[in-house]
Design a protein that fits this description.
It contains nine helices and ten strands. The protein has 267 residues and is of the alpha/beta class. The strands form three sheets. A five-stranded parallel sheet has the order 5-4-3-10-9. A three-stranded parallel sheet has the order 6-7-8, covered by helices on one side. Strands 1-2 form a two-stranded antiparallel sheet. The longest helix is centred in the last third of the chain and has 21 residues. It is globular. The termini are far apart. The relative contact order is 0.13.
Length: 267
């Protein structure tokens, strides 16, 4: 017999044809050491782990600690990213290097930054890099501005997911423009994941309640006083926000509505 829970089972997150149970994606940088990275990653329940190829050793230096020893590709989907790249050329080269290091790995996260102060995406260079990478056979998840037109252009190029910022990278300011995010979600046929700006669990829940397919974060967990506890909080927040979105919230209105209606009451 099919239970209520079975009938309301959520669909998995599908990215580039692969299904994921978790809708929380986490970064691997800024932790105290690799042991804390491992523990926080496990506590988050995440299955996709981003790796900054320019900053983290995944085999480039055989004499240095290797991140893949604590987040092995046999257990996680490694998502190489282009953090620190400011031109399309540098981003493309970085991901081609990642493909070699990861034995032909195709799923990547593209980000091309505009400046060192805001870390805002340089959208002309991002579009250029995305087009080159898609033609080269990569499955591109892309960090972008919360501009619905730019997001649609990236989808038309062939990106497998668009990742608009909620606010500036590492700022912890949360979702500053929910209306733009809603426009992107409404039009997109590929997954939409909030990337950048999440500060605490309520930010992640709000992103999911808006209808985002997932949330990616690093600083919000790694920079917390207790990263492992925060990782668990983020996992629960993403799950709660997703359930609330699927359940459908009540409409907002300028009138009270008693929990115990007067109609039908015993006299």
């Amino acid at each position: 017999m099919q239970t209520h829970q079975d009938m309301n089972q959520d669909q998995p997150l599908i990215i580039a044809g692969k299904a994921y149970r978790s809708r929380l994606l986490v970064g691997s940088g800024k932790y105290r050491d690799l042991e804390e990275t491992r523990a926080a990653t496990e506590a988050s329940g995440a299955e996709i782990i981003t790796v900054a190829i320019r900053r983290v050793n995944i085999g480039q230096d055989p004499n240095a600690p290797n991140l893949l020893d604590v987040v092995p590709p046999s257990k996680y989907t490694i998502l190489p990213n282009t953090a620190g790249c400011y031109t399309a050329k540098d981003a493309v080269y970085t991901l081609q290097l990642a493909r070699e290091l990861l034995n032909g790995h195709k799923l990547v996260k593209l980000e091309v930054l505009g400046d060192q102060k805001t870390l805002f995406p340089n959208m002309p260079e991002t579009l250029k890099a995305a087009e080159t990478l898609v033609k080269d056979g990569f499955d591109v998840m892309v960090y972008c501005s919360d501009d619905p037109i730019q997001a649609r252009m990236l989808e038309e190029i062939g990106c497998v997911a668009v990742m608009p910022l909620a606010s500036l990278i590492g700022s912890g300011m949360g979702i500053l423009n929910p209306w733009n995010l809603s426009l992107i979600i409404e039009q997109s046929k590929v997954p939409v994941l909030v990337d950048a700006g999440v500060g605490t669990a309520s930010d992640a829940a709000i992103a999911m309640e808006l209808g985002c397919d997932g949330v990616l974060m690093n600083t919000a967990i790694a920079g917390a006083r207790d990263p492992i506890r925060m990782a668990r909080a983020m996992m629960l927040a993403v799950e709660a926000g997703r359930d609330a979105y699927l359940a459908g919230r009540i409409p907002k209105k300028f009138a009270a509505s008693p929990s115990s209606p007067m109609e039908g009451r015993a006299t």
